[in-house]
Specification:
Mean pLDDT: 87
Number of helices: 8
Radius of gyration: 27 Å
Distance between the termini: 39 Å
Helix content: over 70%
Largest sheet: none
Order of helices and strands: HHHHHHHH
Strand content: under 5%
Low-confidence stretches: none
């Protein structure tokens, strides 16, 4: 299932659960304040402070980690553009008669790479595009090796083949980095901490006659949206956060190959 759809449903559920926990904590606190008076609110500051601090720490690390992985994915797209562009230019080192078929393969390869990025929400289309990409890599390599052997001098073997290898390695790195995400237990822990903090926040409101809707709603909305943004950063191309600027560099490179 699409993780962004899960994130949307989970964030909404977290929002409602947070509001419910605030109200539950308020009712518990109200009963305790009625039975014990102001004493009911004393002695919990250390526990509450520790849990709220842990929530802030987990949120900070989750957000910074997701942002770092998002930036790494963007940098890999830029690296792929540079690697393909370098290999394209080094095709000039091959004999003139060997260049046209390889240049055609390069155009087809870049078309497939652009298609793969565009088809990310469709897992089946993505697998098919990646399969065609791998097949074109093998074909490009075989033709480049054959053409290099037929060249009168050796610069193509020294410069072109390593550039092709770097180009293929970058595409593999793209696939592996796309699979890197924090363990699901981190998100479960984050949700549990939010609900625990909501319970304590509601308890502290127990000495008020009515629930403070503004503060309660703001608390629940801000935390739920933050969790959603973290998950959206973890899965770019699926949600609201995209890498369109980086993909545009691939499209521009393809246009320059005509």
């Amino acid at each position: 299932m699409n993780p962004i759809l899960l994130a949307s449903g989970g964030s909404l559920l977290l929002l409602l659960a947070t509001l419910a926990m605030i109200e539950t904590g308020r009712r518990i606190g109200k009963r305790r304040f009625q039975e014990e008076g102001e004493v009911a609110g004393r002695g919990f500051s250390a526990v509450e402070g520790a849990i709220f601090a842990l929530l802030g720490l987990v949120l900070a690390f989750s957000f910074s980690g997701a942002l770092a992985r998002f930036d790494a994915r963007r940098q890999l797209v830029v690296k792929e553009v540079n690697d393909i562009g370098t290999a394209w230019l080094r095709l000039d080192l091959l004999p003139a008669e060997a260049q046209p078929p390889l240049r055609d393969l390069f155009r087809r390869y870049l078309d497939v790479r652009i298609e793969a990025y565009a088809s990310v929400p469709d897992a089946t289309a993505l697998r098919e595009a990646l399969g065609r990409s791998s097949a074109l890599q093998r074909e490009i390599w075989q033709q480049a090796v054959a053409a290099s052997r037929g060249a009168p001098t050796g610069p193509s073997q020294i410069l072109l083949l390593p550039a092709l290898n770097a180009m293929f390695d970058t595409s593999t790195s793209q696939q592996e980095v796309a699979r890197l995400h924090p363990p699901k237990v981190i998100f479960l822990m984050l949700g549990a901490l939010i609900l625990a903090c909501a319970l304590f926040a509601g308890y502290d409101m127990g000495n008020r006659p009515n629930l403070n809707l503004l503060h309660s709603t703001a608390f629940a909305v801000v935390l739920s949206v933050t969790v959603y943004v973290i998950i959206d950063l973890e899965y770019p191309r699926l949600g609201f956060i995209r890498m369109s600027d980086s993909d545009a560099a691939l499209v521009a490179l393809r246009a320059g190959m005509e």
